[in-house]
Amino acid sequence: MKTFKLDYLILPIVGIALCIAIWATIAGKPIKKEYVDDFGDKVTKTVRVGLSEDLPSPSETWTASKLYVTEPLAKRGELDQGILRFTWLSLKLVVQGYAIALIIGTPIGFFLGLSKAFAKMFDPIIQILRPVSPLAWLPLGMVLFLSVKISIPGLGEYTASELAAIFTIAVCSMWPTVLNTAVGVRAVPQDYLNVAKVLKLSKAKTLFKVLLPATLPYMFTGFRLSLGIAWLVIVAAEMLTGRPGVGGFLWQQYNALSYAHIILCILTIGVVGYVLDRLMSVVESRFKTA
Amino acid sequence: MPFLELKNVCKSFGGTKVLRDVNLAIEEGEFVSIVGYSGAGKTTLISMIAGLLRPDSGSVKLRGEEITEPGPERGMVFQNYSLLPWLTVAENVALAVDQVFPTWTSEQRKAQVDKYLAMVNLTPARGKLPRELSGGMRQRVSVARALAMEPKILLLDEPLGALDALTRATLQDELVRIWEHDRRTVVLITNDTDEGIMTSGRIVPLSAGPGATLGPSVAVDIARPRDRKTLNSNPAFKHVRKAVLDYLLGPGGRQKTTVNRKLTLPDLLPEDLNEPRTLFGAKRTARRRSEEKLETVEIA
Fold it and tell me: In this predicted model, what pLDDT tens digit does every residue of B227-274 receive, in sequence order?
């Protein structure tokens, strides 16, 4: 429904403005207070007042974050880098974990969908592992990779914390791909399989010419959900390992009482997640069949 | 020895007998229609000829050889087209051709695809995806795919069932035209007696299920090409139609099923308050068995 001209532009702006207004009202404001101290001197002191005293106001957030946004690629120190540089570091890790999740998850999904015995064997394990939080996987990853040294030419040597983060992302983001692929394989119409049978297509040909194309839309829905989770997990992983990245920066600035940067990080994580999801949905719609 | 022979074929699904004692012999080059009620087991029957299903007992033989699995020498046109939606019209047909004639050169295979697409008048649509086609066109692609495999026998499972009456008529004529081209053996499954009479040389009625079986076959002695307009007044047409319908509505008709229901009238016997309550306050039951009646209901 179109209510008025440019509503697709104006309405979101109004919505965002409203939220910022609410934020500004509950945020604390610095107020100069003058009083006479015990020695009889006049002293001015800045105190914060407001519903949530320590929550920085929108303008404070902007002033504090300006440096990170206007110089997005600067590197001043390990945990003091431009916001795009942090995003890039986080994305690099996410992509690796996500790739592993897809490479492992898709075949597992196919096996689950194709073989009833396989499904019966592993479904309980999957259902148990699926709801486990990334915060729980990460320590296990640390233990797993404590003494493992992996170096890949071109990517350099991986530290235990890096491997643990990748492991956590892979394990957490795998499940939507696994389950959607399995559902997709089970949903392949019997008609298509009958065609394959009448034509006497070999197993490999049936897989690549019939099963895989028929399952693709389901698989891509799984891939999209998985990417969302992978991006969700990175923050937790970086927080715990203290690696440079959006999540690591967030945690460090929290510990440094620099609260404005937390909001900057949250917004960055949100925007990047949104962009990733849009990108995946474009890819997804390209593979829709029938 | 008949070309295709079904002997005492029985098939059940989960305790329900679908087909019993089906006997059928088809000679090479015949065009046979199997006409029957929907849900009677027509698709089950043709799936067994195609080899997608195996009979519980009895035998299905093609040229004296038992059919144990599906194969390209039995070209099947499915009820719902079953085209692969991610392949174009030409690719759908080519998938079959490439599979059946792996030794041919790519030009030969392309020529084969083109030949059969032309036969069903779909050359202009060769690059389209199935979803861009109408139902009738999709079914023609499906027919082209089956024919391009050059099968010994063509199995048509209600190929025109989902189409409107006019498209149906056109495609029936087209089927006959294609059949006259090389007189391949055809088994057509349909629920439309007229469709059977228009196209085939013999009609075999399939009785209503459960436990459907084939009735006596009726030869259609009407010269081809059969003219739809004058057919209605043709005495041979009337005779065939009557014979088929007499069987389908008479001995092969739907058996009436009856179900017994227990009716319990509301129990109006007053509760006897003098009777002592049982432990834990269990109810003092006072069901009057005399008020339970049995009712027989006929299910249409």
Answer: 888 888 888 888 888 888 888 887 777 666 667 777 766 666 666 677
Chain A to chain B Cβ contacts (< 8 Å): 52
Going by the DSSP 8-state scheme, the letter that residue A40 receives in this structure is: S
Percent of chain A having pLDDT more than 90?
36
First-to-last C-alpha distance (Å) of chain B: 42
Q: What is the token pair recorded at B236?
A: 């041979």
Average pLDDT over chain B, rounded to an integer: 84
A101 in Cβ contact with A173 (< 8 Å): yes
The 10 Å CB-count burial string (b at 16+, else e) for A274-290 is: eebbeebeeebeeeeee
B212 to chain A, minimum CA–CA distance in Å? 24
Of the candidates A231, A227, A244, the one whose C-alpha atom is nearest the C-alpha of residue A284 is A227
Cα distance between residue B198 and residue B225, in whole Å: 9
pLDDT computed for residue A112 by the predictor: 93
CB B56 within 8 A of CB B11: yes
Q: Is A201 on the interface with B (CB under 8 A)?
A: yes
pTM for the whole structure: 0.76
B154 touching chain A per CB within 8 A: no
ipTM rounded to 2 decimals: 0.74
Q: For residue B116, what are the CA distances in angstroms to A133, B1, B126, B141?
A: 58, 31, 11, 9
